[in-house]
Amino acid sequence: MKTTFADTALLTIILLAIFVVPSSISGTALALPAIGADIQAPLTSLQWVVNAFNLAFACFTLAWGALADRLGRKRCFVAGASLYVVASVLSAVAESAWLLDAARGLAGIGAAAIFSCGIAILSTHFSGPARLRAFALFGTVAGLGVSLGPTLSGLLLDSVGWRAIFWAHGVTLVIVLLGSPLITRDGVLAERTARFDVPGATLFVLALLALMVAIVQGSQWGWTSRGVLGLVAVAVVLLAVFTWQERRHLQPMLDLSLLARGPFVGLALVTVAASFGFVTLLTYLPSYLFGVLQLSATHAGLAMLLLTVPMLFCPILAGKWAARGVSAIGILKASLIALLVGVVALALVSQVGVALWQLAVPLLLVGIGMGLSAGLVDGLALKTVPEQKAGMAAGLLNTFRLGSEAIAVALYGSLLATLLDSQLRGTLSRLAPDPATLQRWIDDVAAGNLTASLQTLGAEQAATVHSLFIGGYDSAFHGVLWALAVILLVLTVVVTWLVRPLREQERSEAQLATH
């Protein structure tokens, strides 16, 4: 079917909104030092500029998806974009940390609507090869947001100031709202005979909020502290009550039958693999490049480009290959293998003194693994569910994606800190003047700052301690990489098993096409 102007306009509006969300996530963190200096915010408050957004994004994705199926995907998409505009204005004018944190949480709620409803609109508006192209572009634009977010934010930060970053988000989404009348088709909606599942939505948001706060705060409070264990217990109880509520509600926020669809769950787990294989490195690799390999900012930037550049073209390639008859499931399996091989290769190649070119193949493999699945997996997953449940399924898929990102990053940081402690405590105890200093050294290294603790030491002792820091971080980094490899291997096997019916369906369709 030929693509019309209306199709192109709708796609442009949706993708412009989609671009803002990942660019905001990856770009806002760059401005934290400037924000802290300007509004005199402590470190804990600054961390919540990012965490509040991520928490709200993950918590409200499923709720927006369910609302979209009942009230209309376009209506909820516009509501989310409007909410994001308001939040961006509040962020840009904030003079206190608490207002900025609250505004970023509000932006996360809007982002959840943009992603869930935007994906559902693409799924119901396009079909066949056009759908493959649309989701390939979706993956590419999301990748552009991740890759260009820090660069664009850096330019605005240097030329205008940190507030310009949030003004830019708001202005972009105002353009989206002005173009929203071009979104004309809303697809098949669920029946509205029953009221929206408010208790279910509330229970789910509170359960995920408790779990996410426990994960975010675990490294500060201690993973076995009463606060963390208490929050985990609360999350488990709330999820149990949520399950009971969804089973008895006529039109639940989450149709639990979606979790009984093996192919859908298998495709959702592809996003989990991307979180562990790609997002963790996107977050923590810069600390290794600066601290252990001691690369300059330019060389570290080049290394990170090796990781992110495949996101610019791989989604398009995957969509074109699938449209030409290449097995979409085969492409996803290849993406999982690329992630696994890339992480293993990075563990084998990376070491103190390694040349930048030696990191190229491992980082490109990880980036390719992420890029091949981005977009493609969303379109395939939504094809496995009825159209009237597209919003709910999109919300659940993004809950898998966003929840696993938060968990993966938190677990990476926790494991890194644990391994560092075991590596450094014994060797540094004889050099540190007191236990408090020793703990501060270990905390600094875990945060990726391998030089802050050296300023008060003599030249000879500083060189010795720095060498131990580098060796300890390098060892812990490799330990975490091998743990990631094991997780990716398990996920690859599980996904391969769960998507078997889809592969068999592809073969049947291919045989029919040849007759």
The tally of beta strands, per DSSP, is 0
Return the average pLDDT rounded to an integer: 83
State the distance separating the first and last CA atoms: 23 Å
Using the CA coordinates, give the radius of gyration.
23 Å
CATH class of the largest domain: Mainly Alpha
At the third CATH level, what is the topology name of the largest domain?
A: Growth Hormone, Chain: A
Total number of domains = 4
Q: Do you know the CATH architecture of the largest domain? A: Up-down Bundle
Helical content class: over 70%
Percent in strands: under 5%
The largest β sheet comes out as:
none
Structural class: mainly alpha
Indicate the low-confidence ranges by residue numbers. Answer: none
Q: What overall geometry do the principal axes of the alpha carbons give?
A: globular
Order of helices and strands: HHHHHHHHHHHHHHHHHHH
Please give the count of helices: 19
What would you give as the CATH superfamily of the largest domain? MFS general substrate transporter like domains
Please give a structural write-up.
The protein has 515 residues and is an all-alpha fold. It has 4 domains: 1-191, Growth Hormone, Chain: A, CATH 1.20.1250.20; 198-248; 255-406 and 482-515, Growth Hormone, Chain: A, CATH 1.20.1250; 419-479, no CATH class. It has 19 helices and no strands. It has helices at residues 5-28, 32-39, 43-71, 73-93, 97-125, 128-159, 163-179, 198-221, 226-248, 262-291, 297-308, 310-323, 328-349, 360-373, 376-383, 390-428, 435-446, 459-498, 500-514. Helix 1 (5-28) packs antiparallel against helix 7 (163-179) and helix 6 runs antiparallel to helix 12 (310-323). The longest helix has 40 residues, at 459-498. The radius of gyration is 23 Å and the shape is globular.
